[in-house]
Structures are given as structure tokens and as C-alpha cells.
Design a protein that fits this description.
Blueprint (H helix, E strand, L loop, with lengths): L6 E5 H7 L9 H10 L5 H33 L8 E7 L5 H15 L5 E5 L7 H6 L14 H12 L4 E7 L4 E10 L4 E5 L20 E6 L2 H19 L8 H5 L2 H24 L8 E5 L5 E7 L2
Parallel strand pairs: 2-6, 2-7, 3-6, 7-8
Antiparallel strand pairs: 1-9, 4-5, 8-9
Helix pairs in contact: 1-3, 2-4, 3-4, 7-9
The structure holds adenosine-5'-triphosphate and pantothenoic acid.
Enzyme class: transferase
Subcellular location: Cytoplasm
Protein name: Pantothenate kinase
């Protein structure tokens, strides 16, 4: 598949056995919350893949706190509370936001006393007006379409315990929502999800991932991701026809096969090249690669050895 020297390749069957308590049944309320994220999420995946993953994240969380405590004691200072940041990368439509929301729910259930928050880097894409001004509207999602300086400042502020505002992107309006922000205020755990979280921003000295305590790359064969992209496009059209303000409204009320043809073209000319040129090359930087097959089922995991 790719150079695995740095990774343990762990088939799903082995992975589920690594955490002996995987049979612990989730409560009805937990299941209902998970179902509400996406009614097609496989609960087997939750038990076999995500429960052990939350356990592994718990190990990293404890290790991070121990290290900070020991370093503070070395310096003779009181340890600061430093948020644990988890990055989630992967292609457009591979399922990053679904994975991130699922992990947020599971981490919150596991650590009820901790504040677990989530942002997506979609909010750091320049508004369409600015993309047009720069003549890069057709490059949405490519590195130059993000205000990476702003994303770095945001992550730096969070790590330093300062409140920070994340702008919000809407798939429905296909644009940044003006004057709307997610306020992130001293979380214990912050999940940062986006196609670009493992990229080195141009004109910057820092990776956003320098602030991460753990990172996950959600992976799948391109043909499957394209299918998921087109499925999501059809779902967007199914809801868009009721709302003339929706970006997809004209496509929703028009000829469906023409609309799907357009989506295929967008995949072929924008999201596919972005995947090959800028997203896939960051896979080797992740601490864990979550590999999915048909129906989003996870079949293999690659865990970084060191
Ligand atoms: N585990 C899963 N089970 C079932 N369906 C899923 C799962 N993960 C994602 N999907 C579906 O796949 C499609 C893409 O998922 P999602 O929107 O989470 O992707 P994404 O990587 O966040 O995309 P983008 O970068 O464009 O925001 C959606 O239609 C979503 O409902
Ligand atoms: C917002 C991003 C870049 C990432 O989520 C993506 O969903 C997107 O809009 N890509 C641009 C091409 C398109 O799919 O319309």
C-alpha cells in the first residue's frame, strides 16, 4: 500500500482484540446520540474500532499530562492546563467530519468532566468574494484557498489557553457564513478536522500539526471516496429543492443527471487533483491511518511506531 516501515499494520480483527473491554455495551442514550450523527454509522465499527481508539487516545492524553507535569516540576513552576489537540485529515468527502463528531461524542461520554470541542478548518477558507478577488474560486480546498496564518494563530491561541473564534463554513451556501463564529474557550480536548491539517502552509514556518498531540488520517480508495462524494451531493440536492437560498437549489430543481454530471466534473477537476497533489502526500505524517472500505467500514489501521 505505501511505505509501512514506520507503521504497525493492524487488521480490524486484531485491533478489536487490543482493547479487552470492547464488549462493554453502550447505553441506549449513547447509541441514540451516535445514531443521530449519521444513521448509517455502523455500531459494530463503534464497538470494534472506535472504542479501542478512544482507549488509545486516553493513553496519549495521560502521557501528555504527565509530561507537562514533569516538565513543570523540572522548571520549578506550576503546570499549566494545556488542551490536548487531535487532528483529523483526509480527502474531501472521505468522512472526516463524521469521524470527528463520533470521536467527540465518545470522548465526551468517556470523560464527562472534560470539555471536548470540535472545529473544522473549512471555516478558514477565504469567503467566496475573496476567492473571486484572488481568481481562485475554482481552487477551493487547495492550500492557497485557506487563510493558514489565521488558522495557525487560532491553534496557537487555543494551546496557550486563550479563547479563540473559528469562522464557520456552510455547505448549503457554499460560502463562509458572515459574522458567525464558533467560540472555543479553554477546552480540555479539541478536535481539529480538515483536509489541510497535516500540510505545511506556504509562507509559514510552522505546521498546524506542530500543535497536535495526536493525528488521524481517514483513508479509502479514490473510487469509493468519489462514490461517497456523489452520494452526499445527491443528499444535498434532496434537501436543497425546498430552499431557494441554498447554493444547490438551481441544480436541485433542474435535470438530475445534468447535476450529477456537473458534480462528477467538480470531483475530476478540483477534489481529485487536490487529493493526489496535496492531501495524500500528508498521509505519512499521521499517527494513525484509519482505512475504510465499502459502506465506510474500517478494515485496517496503521499505527505509527514512534
Ligand atoms: N462512518 C460512516 N458511515 C456512514 N456514512 C458515512 C460515514 N462517514 C461518512 N459518511 C457519509 O459520507 C459522506 C462524506 O462524509 P463527511 O461529510 O463526514 O466527509 P468529510 O470528509 O468531512 O467531507 P468535507 O471535507 O467535504 O467536509 C457523507 O454523506 C456522510 O454521511
Ligand atoms: C469545503 C471543502 C474544500 C472541504 O470540505 C469541499 O467540500 C469543497 O467545497 N470543495 C470544492 C469543490 C466542491 O466540492 O464543490
Amino acid at each position: 500500500m505505501y511505505n509501512q516501515i514506520n507503521y504497525y499494520k493492524i487488521p480490524r480483527d486484531e485491533w478489536r482484540e487490543l482493547y479487552q473491554e470492547h464488549n462493554v455495551p453502550l447505553s441506549a442514550a449513547e447509541l441514540a446520540r451516535i445514531r443521530s450523527l449519521n444513521d448509517r454509522i455502523s455500531l459494530e465499527d463503534v464497538r470494534d474500532v472506535y472504542a479501542p481508539l478512544v482507549h488509545l487516545l486516553g493513553i496519549h492524553l495521560t502521557a501528555q499530562r504527565e509530561l507537562l507535569k514533569k516538565q513543570a516540576s523540572f522548571l520549578g513552576i506550576t503546570p499549566h492546563r494545556v488542551p490536548f489537540i487531535l487532528g483529523i485529515a483526509g480527502s474531501v468527502a472521505v468522512g472526516k467530519s463524521t469521524t470527528a463528531r463520533l470521536l467527540q461524542t465518545l470522548l465526551q461520554e468517556t470523560y464527562p468532566d472534560k470539555q471536548v470541542q470540535l472545529i473544522t478548518t473549512d471555516g478558514f477558507i477565504y469567503p467566496n468574494k475573496e476567492l473571486k478577488r484572488r481568481n481562485i474560486l475554482h481552487r477551493k480546498g487547495f492550500p492557497e484557498s485557506y487563510d493558514m496564518g489565521r488558522l495557525l494563530t487560532f491553534t496557537n491561541d487555543i494551546k496557550n489557553g486563550l479563547p479563540a473564534k473559528a469562522p464557520v463554513y456552510s455547505h448549503k451556501s457554499y460560502d463562509i457564513i458572515p459574522d458567525q463564529y464558533d467560540l472555543i474557550e479553554s477546552p480540555d480536548i479539541l478536535l481539529v478536522e480538515g483536509i489541510n491539517v497535516l500540510q505545511l502552509p506556504s509562507n509559514q514556518q510552522l505546521y498546524v500539526s506542530d500543535f497536535f498531540d495526536f493525528s488521524i488520517y481517514v483513508d479509502a480508495k479514490e473510487e469509493l471516496i468519489r462514490e461517497w462524494y456523489l452520494e452526499r451531493f445527491n443528499m444535498l440536492l434532496d434537501t436543497a429543492f425546498k430552499d431557494p437560498a441554498n447554493y444547490y437549489y438551481p441544480y436541485a430543481i433542474g435535470n438530475r443527471s445534468e447535476a450529477v454530471k456537473m458534480a462528477r466534473h467538480v470531483w475530476q477537476t478540483i477534489n481529485r487533483p487536490n487529493l493526489h497533489e496535496y492531501i495524500l502526500p500528508t498521509r505519512n505524517r499521521a499517527d494513525l491511518v484509519l482505512h475504510k472500505t465499502q459502506n465506510h467500514l474500517v478494515n485496517e489501521l496503521f499505527l505509527r511506531k514512534y
